[in-house]
Design brief:
- The protein has 12 helices and 18 strands.
- Among the domains are: 98 residues, Alpha-Beta Plaits, CATH 3.30.70; 67 residues, no CATH class.
- By secondary structure, it is an alpha/beta fold.
- The structure holds flavin-adenine dinucleotide.
- Flavin-adenine dinucleotide (FAD) binds next to α1, β2, β16 and α8.
- It comes from Mycolicibacterium sphagni.
- InterPro entries: FAD/NAD-bd_sf.
Length: 463
C-alpha cells in the first residue's frame, strides 16, 4: 500500500482462499495481477465444483478473521451485514469438546475474543468480492495447463493456458501456485531438472459427511458446536449456524473408521458425542438437500523450505504447500498468515523471495503441524512414526483438557491458542501447568474421598 509497483505482471493459479489472499498482497507490488481459476466462479455465495470441501463445515479461527480483515478491510462488517453471526466475547455461544473433554466455556472470558461464523461459500465469496474490487487485480476463468520454464534463465516466465487444441502463453514476472493440495508443482520441478520436495505426511484416514439442516428456533442457542474425536470415540462432529438461518452439520471419522452414510447414522454420532438436548434438536431438524461426502486420507507438508535448488519466478502457496488435518479447522487461517509473510517479504524487497517465504512458512507451520501430529498419533489413532516425547505431550494435554472442563481460565487459555490467537505454540506457561495440576489433584482428592469405604457416613440429623 502506498509503495511503488516495481514489477509488471504477476499470475496466480487458483482463485480460492489462498490465491485471492496472494493476489491482494501482490497488487501492492505488481502493475497487474491476474488470477486464473479453472472453475466458473459464481456471482453469489455458492458451492464450487473445483473446491469440493466447500460443502463441509469450515471453522474460521478468530486469528484468521483478523488476518483476512487486515488484507481486505471491511470484510468482517460485510459478512455481518450479510447475516453472519459475530460472537463478541460470547463463549456461551460455543460448545467445544476436544479429545473427549467438554471445555467449560460457559463463563465470560477475561480477554476479548471475537469469532465469526460464516459458511465457507459466504467467506470465499466475500473475499473474492473484495479481491475483484482491487483495481489492478483481474480474476479470469481459465485452466492453467502448466507454468512455462526457461532453461537458460532457470526461471518460470509465465503460464500456458489450456485452449482446445492449443496452448496460449501469458508472460509474467512471478507465478504463484495456489492450486491447492492437488498441485502438480512437484512433478513440474522434476521435469525442469529440480528435486521434488520431501513430503511429511500423517495417515489420518478421515471421512466427512455433511448435511445442511433447518433446526426449529430456540432448540440450540449456541452458534458453534464442536465435538472432536477422542481415544475411545473415532467419530466427531462440527456444526455451525449459517448466515441464512440454516445449520451445517458435518460428522467425521478418523483412522479409517467407517463413516455415517445416512442422516440417521449422523444422528447416532450426535447422540454419542453431544449433550442430549443438542442431539435431540438435531433429530428434530429438517434435512435440506443431499448429504455431501469427502475423503481426506493424509495431511501433507511439502518441504519446499528444505530444497537446495528452486527455480526463480514461481512460489508455492496455501494448501499447495501444507494441507492440515481439516478437523482442526486451521487451513484458511494458516493461509492468511502465509499471506502476511509474503506481504512483509515483498515490502523488504528481499532478493531471495522463494527461500525466505519457504523459511517463514515453515516457521509458522511447524508448531501447528507438530501439535496436530501429537493429537493425531497419540489420541486419534493415526498411524505413523512418532518421536518418544509425542506420547508424553499427548498424555499431558489429555490431563490439561480434563482440568479445562471445569476451570474457565484453563478453558480460555486453550480456546485462544486453539484459535491461533495468542501464539501458534500450544505450550502452556508454568502458571497454567501449575493450575492444571492443582485442579486435577483436588478433583482426584474429592473423588478418592467419595469412593473411600472408610469415609464417614453422611451425618444423620437427629430431629
Ligand atoms: C474437508 C475439508 C474441510 C476443511 N475445513 C476447514 C476448516 O474448518 N477451517 C479451515 O480454516 N480450513 C479448512 N479446510 C482447509 C481449506 O479448505 C483450505 O485451507 C483453503 O481452501 C485454502 O486452500 P487453497 O486456496 O490453497 O486451495 P483450494 O481451496 O483447494 O483451491 C484451489 C483452487 O485452485 C484452482 N485450480 C486448481 N488447479 C488449477 C489450474 N490448473 N488452473 C486454474 N485453476 C486451478 C481450483 O479451481 C481452486 O479454486 C478444510 C479442507 C477440507 C478438505
Amino acid at each position: 500500500m502506498g509503495q511503488p509497483r516495481n514489477h509488471n505482471h504477476a499470475i496466480v493459479i487458483g482463485a480460492s482462499i489462498a490465491g485471492l489472499c496472494a493476489a491482494r498482497v501482490l497488487s501492492d507490488h505488481y502493475q497487474q495481477v491476474t488470477v486464473y481459476d479453472r472453475d466458473a466462479l459464481p456471482e453469489t455465495p455458492a458451492h464450487r465444483s473445483a473446491v469440493p470441501q466447500d460443502r463441509h463445515v469450515h471453522i474460521l479461527m478468530a486469528r484468521g478473521a483478523n488476518e483476512f480483515e487486515r488484507l481486505f478491510p471491511g470484510l468482517l462488517d460485510g459478512m455481518v451485514a450479510a447475516g453472519v453471526a459475530k460472537l463478541d466475547n460470547r463463549p456461551d455461544c460455543i460448545h467445544f469438546g476436544a479429545a473427549g473433554h467438554v471445555l467449560g466455556t460457559g463463563h465470560t472470558l477475561r480477554h476479548g475474543f471475537t469469532a465469526y461464523v460464516p459458511s465457507r461459500k459466504q467467506l470465499e465469496w466475500q473475499i473474492r468480492r473484495h479481491a475483484a474490487a482491487v483495481p489492478n487485480v483481474r480474476i479470469v476463468h481459465r485452466d492453467v495447463d502448466a507454468p512455462r520454464f526457461d532453461g537458460k534463465r532457470q526461471a518460470v516466465t509465465g503460464v500456458l493456458l489450456s485452449r482446445p487444441g492449443d496452448r496460449e502463453f501469458i508472460p509474467a514476472d512471478l507465478v504463484i501456485d495456489a492450486s491447492g493440495r492437488g498441485t502438480r508443482l512437484p512433478a513440474w520441478l522434476r521435469e525442469w531438472g529440480y528435486p521434488r520436495p520431501e513430503e511429511q505426511t500423517i495417515d489420518v484416514g478421515i471421512s466427512y459427511a455433511t448435511q445442511q439442516l433447518r433446526i426449529p428456533d430456540g432448540l440450540i442457542t449456541e452458534k458453534v458446536v464442536v465435538a472432536g474425536v477422542s481415544r475411545t470415540q473415532q467419530a466427531g462432529l462440527g456444526m455451525l449456524f449459517y448466515e441464512d438461518g440454516t445449520w451445517g452439520l458435518t460428522t467425521f471419522t478418523v483412522a479409517h473408521a467407517s463413516a455415517p452414510q445416512t442422516f440417521a447414522e449422523m444422528c447416532t454420532v450426535a447422540d454419542q458425542v453431544l449433550p442430549a438436548r443438542m442431539a435431540a434438536a438435531i433429530r428434530r431438524a429438517e434435512p435440506l438437500g443431499n448429504i455431501a461426502f469427502h475423503r481426506y486420507p493424509v495431511s501433507r507438508w511439502r518441504r519446499y523450505d528444505k530444497l537446495q535448488r528452486f527455480p526463480a519466478g514461481i512460489l508455492p502457496f496455501g494448501d499447495a504447500v501444507v494441507s492440515f488435518n481439516p478437523t482442526y479447522g486451521q487451513g484458511m487461517t494458516m493461509t492468511a498468515i502465509q499471506a502476511g509473510h509474503l506481504r512483509r517479504l515483498l515490502a523488504s524487497q528481499t532478493r531471495h523471495l522463494a527461500y525466505d517465504l519457504g523459511r517463514a512458512t515453515a516457521k509458522t507451520t511447524y508448531p501447528v503441524w507438530t501439535m496436530n501430529a501429537i493429537g493425531d498419533l497419540t489420541l486419534h489413532g493415526s498411524e505413523g512414526p512418532a518421536p518418544w516425547w509425542y506420547r508424553r505431550v499427548g498424555a499431558l494435554f489429555d490431563q490439561f483438557l480434563g482440568a479445562a472442563e471445569t476451570d474457565p481460565v484453563l478453558a480460555e487459555w486453550f480456546l485462544r491458542r486453539f484459535s491461533l490467537l495468542d501464539s501458534l505454540y500450544m505450550v502452556p506457561p508454568a502458571s497454567i501447568i501449575g493450575r492444571a495440576i492443582r485442579h486435577n489433584l483436588s478433583a482426584w482428592r474429592v473423588q478418592r474421598h467419595a469412593m473411600s469405604p472408610l469415609r464417614d457416613p453422611d451425618p444423620v440429623l437427629d430431629i
